[in-house]
Design a protein that fits this description.
Length: 64
């Protein structure tokens, strides 16, 4: 459930960022939206990496 909540919040941030990028005429606002979208993607990849690492650790423990 926590992973799903993180995905939903990051997806919302990405959607808002994409909306801001598409609807802004001010370059500064577009740059800020792009940075927010990049941060959301980085956070998601970090979560994915941690999940994979924990899954590997769990599988290793369960094999013993």
């Amino acid at each position: 459930m926590t992973k799903t909540l993180k995905l939903v919040s990051l997806s919302a941030a990405a959607l808002i960022g994409a909306t801001l990028i598409g609807g802004c005429t001010d370059q500064t606002a577009r740059d800020m939206a792009t940075q927010a979208l990049d941060a959301a993607k980085a956070a998601q990849s970090c979560c994915d990496a941690n999940t994979e690492r924990l899954d590997r650790m769990y599988q290793k423990i369960m094999r013993k």
